Structures are given as C-alpha cells and as structure tokens.
Amino acid sequence: MGAQGAIVRSLQKGTDARTGALLGVLVLGKDAADVPYDLRDGFIQVGLAHALAASGFQVSLILASVLTLGRALPTSRQIMLGASALLLYGFLTGVEPSIVRAILMGFAGLAALGLQRQTRPVGVLLAIATLMLLYKPLWIWDLGFQLSVLATLGLLITVPPLVKALDCLPPVLATAIAVPLAATIWTLPLQLYTFGVLPLYSLFANVLTALLLSILTIGGFIASCLALLWPDLGSLIAWFLLWPTQLLMGIVMGISQLPGHALAIGSISLLQLLGLYGCIGAVWLLPRWQKQWRFVAVLGFLILVIPLWHIQTQRFLVTVFDRTHIPMMVIEHPNSTVVLNSGDALNASQSLVPFLQQEGINRVDWAIATHPDDLSKSGWTALLKKISITHLSRCIPQAFPAGIKGQPQRQLDVNPQEKLALGPLQMILWRVQPTILELQIGPQRWWMVDGSNESDFLAWLSTVPLPSIQVLWWMGDPLSPSMVERLHPQVLILSGRKVTPSAIAALEAVVPKVLWTERDGTIQWTPDRVLVLRSILETILFRFYDGDFLQSLLYALSA
After folding, report:
1. Rounded to whole angstroms, what are the CA distances from 483 to 35, 174, 480?
2. Four-point Cα dihedral 266, 269, 275, 279, nearest 10
C-alpha cells in the first residue's frame, strides 16, 4: 500500500485529485485510491466495473506490449522481459485473486513461448484456477476471482466464433465487438445474481472506450513505474494522460445519465444462475446444441424472465432497515412500491438504492417523508438519480428540498385524519410532530410512532379510543413497558440507538416479540411471518431460499 500510495500521489500531482485517483485505480486496482462514489458508480452502471479492478485485461495488455517491443530480441530475452513485467505488475498491485490468476496465465504463455509448444488455454486456465483454490479455498467466494475466470473463459471460448460470425465487419471492429460481448455472455448471469442490474449500454460503452482504456493502462503503467524511481517524472507522464482520462470520465458519466442506462430486474436465484450457465455450457461442449444456439438463447431468456415475473406479481413484503439515523421502510406488493423516508445521501445511495435494484424495482409509486430530518437531508435527491418516483408526500410541515423540485410530477401533503390507499396498503396520519402514522398492511395494523416525547404520546393516547394494533414501530428514545401494555402489540420494533439491554428485557416481559434494529438488523415481514435478517445481504438472499435454511447456513459460516 505504501508503494501504491506514492504512485497515486505522483499521478495526482501531474493531473488532479479526481483524475489521478481514477488513473491509479485503472492501473493498480480498486484498492489503490479512493475514487469518488459517483464516478465509481458510473463505471458500474454502464458495465465497465472490470476497468476498476486490476485483472487479466491489464495483465494481457502489459505483457503483449512488452513482447511486441522486444520482438527483435532472442526468445530467452523476450521471456525475461515478460516475466519481469509480470512480477513488477504483481508487486505494484498486490496479491488479489484475479491478479494472481492473470499473472499465472501470463507465465504459462511465456512457458509455451519458450518451449515452442502449443498449449490448451482452457485447460491451463482451469488448472491454474484449481491450484489457486487448493492453495486458498476461500478465494472461490471472491467475486473478482469468479468474474475473472468467467471472463477469461468467455474470451478463450466464445471470441473466435463471434469474430467468425461478424466477418462482414472490418477485423478490428469485429474483434472490438466480440471481446466485450463474449465476456458479457459469460459474466452476466453472475452479475445478475449478485447485483440484479442489467447495464443496457454495456456493449456500446465497452466498444467506445476500448482504445482509451488500452492507452491509459499502458501509459499509466509506465507512469507508475517511473513514479517509484522519480516521482516528478511519473507526474510528467501522468500529465500527458490528463485529457484521455478526463475524456474517459466524460464518456462514462455521459452514458450513465442516458435514460434506461441500467435496468433493475432483481437478483436471480441460484437455480436460475445454474440454469443459465447450463445453457452456456451446453452450447460450448455439445456440438448438437451449438447448431441450436437460438433455441438455447430463448430457453435462457425464459429461465431468466419467468421466475422474476412471478416474484414481481406475487410479492408482498415489508422491510425495516437497520443502522439508519432516520427510520426507513420499504413496502412491496404486486405492481406497486412504497418507501417511507430515504435517510441521508449515504443511506439512500448505499443501502436503499441497491436494495431496490436487487428487488427489481425501477420505480417507487409512493414515497413518503414522515420524519422531520428526512426532508432536510439529500436522500431523496440521491434516490431520484437512480429510481423514479411517481408520488412524493410529506407528513410534516416542511418544504421539499430544492434539488427534487418538480421531479416527481406529484408532490402532495398528507393531512391529519386523512385516509389514503394504494393497493392493499391504507394509511392514516393521526398526528404531526410527533408523527403517529397508522398503516394497514394486508391483514395487520401497524403504528409508526416518533418516540421523541413519550409523555406527550401518552397524553394524546388518553384522548382517543385505544386501537387494536399488531405491530408497533417505535422510533427514537426508549419507551416504558407500561405504555406498551396499553397498546398490546403482538410485535414491537425499535429503531433507535439509546435502548439498553435491561430496557429490552423489561419490554420482552410484556410483548410476545421485541425486535431492535441495532441488535437484530434488517427486519422483514410477510403475511406468513416476521423475519430477522442480520444484514441487507441476507435480506436480498432470503427471497430465493428457505429462510430457516439460510439462517442456519449463515450462522454456521460465521461461527
């Protein structure tokens, strides 16, 4: 990290902080520098995430460039130059699974060059991957390693037939299209399984930026090597790369702003993942299926679409987020989605947006700000950059942020005692400041209460008929067992950081089920049961697996 830090500082000195950080990451990998979140997210959204992770793309470019420059030398000297470049690059980037795999493949290629023998690249790749996993089995769970192996398989297996199919195009253009298309075919199922987002402009973005990425990788590697010997010289080389890097940034951010640049279809299940790779493997290994590739493509499309369509039309799910300063809830039911509070910009961009995308949600039908702090933060602005909102409402007498003015076409106030409905969801705002909101979700009645003043809430409660509620969601300061006894909820959900273990124990004596988001994590409710999921990852995975099995598996793995 010390060498990487020195290199990045040299690159930033020759460019600027943002450009130098991106250039460093393009060459040395995602951990070399802190690329601004919007820029990193832009690369991911347009299908260029691989450019930010040092892997086979960079290694193959560097090795090919070195061997091309030394082609006039004897074979032994070429091998020495190539091996030196691989070792130097490995030293600069560090030991990452994808880098180790790429460097070992490079050494295998150099060995074949020295022995003057043809190799079977697929066999070499599988042997290297197997040896790496025998050395460190946990690498099998590393997403970078998985994508690296799959992308390389795609390049070795699928590029030649694609180039042949595109023989009507100039060879350079055919190759420029075939390479990203092959890598996409082999990595897309895993990306959908992990992220649930389909980058619609991925092929276009990869073809458009291929030359720029090649120039920046080679130039950045030269600048990085020189920066270790003489930082000012590295800065000078980086200065020449300033405009190409900024051009790349402009292209990426421009594509990421296009309408529909990324379509959230929802994370696919493990069975879908295996089915899609079964289709790809059949076309690769079985000659009969190679001739029927159109039928296999249709089969893969059906494997992808039918389960996702079923989930979208049958889902009825309530999610209460954990570890957020402002309490947040998402209510999903067939054909509509409701969001209560977006939190701050960090909560919205790193928790709420990924969750919605992995649920396959591209539009929020009704967004409601119930908390006084919610409209003063920039969470709604961050959410609107990725997810469209049909209606935005507020339960509090506070202006909408200027950044969202006019974006949702309908911005409404929720008035006290007014009953509103959206599908099977009904809502009544009983009181403003502190907020008391009633939600009729399916067969159950929820009360969401701003618990900043319990005595005030008790005084108000004595003036109204006591309702029969099933779930009480209490936000803010701790509450007393005597107050809870008056409402008799079946489930009590606490969102707040001031709760003590003794207070939890006292509440558990009077309520059948007490859940605290700071302790229990994300909480989900379905018409059948209430689930406690310790992280947003488990929240996403639960949709595709039996909940009890998943809980047991995750606890066993973490034990």
Report:
1. 49, 71, 6
2. 30
Number of domains in the chain: 3
- Residues 532, 538, 540, 544, CA torsion sign: negative
Q: Are residues 290 and 158 part of one domain?
A: no
Give the DSSP letter of residue 401: P
**DSSP 3-state assignment of 448?**
strand
Res 535: pLDDT? 46
pLDDT along the chain (559 residues), means of 10: 81 88 86 83 83 80 84 84 87 81 84 76 86 88 84 86 86 84 88 84 86 89 89 90 92 85 82 92 86 88 87 82 82 85 82 86 85 71 83 74 59 74 79 81 82 72 78 79 82 80 83 84 75 48 41 37
Which of 264, 279, 298 marks a domain boundary? 264
Which residue type occupies 347?
N
- 365, 285: one domain: no
Q: Are residues 51 and 114 in the same domain?
A: yes
180/247 Cα distance (integer angstroms): 20
Which of 264, 283, 301 finishes a domain?
264
Considering the domain architecture, whether residues 428 and 393 belong to the same structural domain is answered as yes
Q: 305 and 320 share a domain?
A: no
CA distance 155 to 403: 44
Q: What is the DSSP string of 467-496?
A: P--SEEEEEES---HHHHHHH--SEEEEE-
Euclidean distance between the first and final Cα of the chain, in Å? 31
Distances (CA, A) of 33 to 18, 134, 190: 10, 31, 26
The whole domain housing 304 covers: 270-309
Residues 305 and 435 in one domain: no
Phi first, then psi: give them for residue 525, nearest 5 degrees.
-125, 135
Strands 317-320 and 522-525: antiparallel
**Secondary structure of residue 325 in the 3-state scheme:** coil
Residue 534's pLDDT is what?
44
Measured distance CA(239)–CA(248) in Å, rounded: 15
Which amino acid belongs to residue 51? A
User: Residue 54's closest CA among 106, 18, 15?
Assistant: 106
Q: Between vectors from CA 359 to CA 353 and to CA 363, what angle results, nearest 5°?
A: 60
Rounded Cα–Cα distance for residues 217 and 51 (Å): 9
* DSSP character string of 338-398: EEE---SHHHIIIIIHHHHHHTT--EEEEEEE-STTTTTSSHHHHHHTTSEEEEEEESSS-
Name which of 409, 332, 326 is nearest 369 in CA terms. 326
Helix (H, G, I), strand (E, B) or coil at 530: strand
Both 502 and 422 in one domain: the answer is: yes
Q: For residue 330, give the amino acid letter.
A: V
Same structural domain, 456 and 423: yes
DSSP for residue 399: P
- Identify the CATH number of the domain in which residue 333 sits: 3.60.15.10
Asked, as a colleague might, if the bond just before 97 is cis with ω within 30 of 0, I would say no
Task: Give the C-alpha separation, 233 to 285, whole Å.
Answer: 51
